From TrEMBL:
GO biological process: cell adhesion
InterPro entries, per database record: Alpha-catenin/vinculin-like_sf, Vinculin, Vinculin/catenin
Name of this chain's protein: Vinculin
Regions of compositional bias (Pro residues) in chain numbering: 262-280
Amino acid sequence: TLSQKLYELKDRIQNAVVSRVVEDFIDISSPLKHFTDAVHVPQGTPGREQNFNDRALQLQQFSTRAAKTARMVAAGGSSGNKKLAEVESLTPQLVSAGRIRMNYPESKAADEHFQNLVAQYSDSVQHVRALCDEATNSSDFIKMSESIRKNQPQKMVDNTASIARVLMVAKQESDNSEDPQFISRVNQASDQVQSTPKCDPNGARCKGCAINTQDPIAASRWRESNRALLAAVGEVRHAVTVTPDLPPPPDMSNLHINDYAPPRPPLPGGEVPPPRPPPPETDDEDDMFLHAPLPNQPIMMAAHGLHQEVRQWSSKDNDIIVAAKKMAVLMGRLSQLVRGEGGSSKRDLISCAKSIAEASEEVTRLAKELARECTDKRMRTNLLQVCERIPTIGTQLKILSTVKATMLGAQGTEEDQEATDMLVGNAQNLMQSVKETVRAAESASIKIRTDAGIRLRWVRRQPWYQY
């Protein structure tokens, strides 16, 4: 079906992005180190200029590739991309400073300027890599690292830093969680990776195989170490993978094969028709959003955007979706009142804005309650950041609506237009904050404490094309 194909496309895109993150950030220090070494080559060395140009080109290519990968990761989230823009802008500055330092090696100012840019560039690249690791699914990341090790062993020999990358991601997940069982499981798997013979800092087995490639015993030991390492990395992937608990199996102890069938129920008697089946889950407020709003209805467009976001989820056993839908309907009603549709009055406008502010407080309360039980620190922080803006914007909406209500009898004036513009901007910010809160709440729901009393069911409603 179309739905299945869309999910397959989503998975393939995610796997492609994860693969780029694994491969492009596997070694971020070598391009900068090689360029720095080329800058410090003494004058008069043969091929000094060509070596500098080659290393500068390699650094530029690495920066471009890393920025493209980071931009793909940023495109899937709501955060900005300031750090990758910083990497792109620092690269030509670093190359220029390196050329000046190479041409004037005795200049202390040129050397200090070059060293400062090297430190800034290194910090920015490390920050970009950390942000990409945070935005990437840890289980998929480790799984892709396993695949590269199995399919491209020579590449992994040349880039043994990938093992440290897996351990780094595992440590990030351990530090980010407050679930003691999860932390213990991840730490044990990481210790197992570090204890494998191939991760031995002396590298005795790898060195023995590299020195004498014809020695079958050394090669056999190296293969054993490699298999042990792959198995240990697989344990790390299993440790960081979050799988929902399966429901307990039904009690079948009282069932017997020789039991007689239950008696047949009596036939329906009389002319009483069978009860009507329950209607499909629909929302009465859908009538307001049957048609897409026009460009001259900015408040209705903001409400329609929130409604489109939350209507994909079932309202059953999900108070956050119920409150968000209520806010979308109230904002649509506010749009009608501001435009003077349906015989609006000052009292109606102020009352509607007050109801929106109360609904926004309810969304914030539910989101904070969910955040308190979330064991993932990043998800909890993100949820709190987006939901704590809502009450402030809701209070501003009440004030701006009161100002707009005083202008209902004086439409077309400069003061009325200014009040309308401020109200429109506030409504758009409020609807966007609620949308981000719903998304953050849905993500945080998978990391709820097992003993928490919160039970939010995130069930996608059946798309229209599957009816």
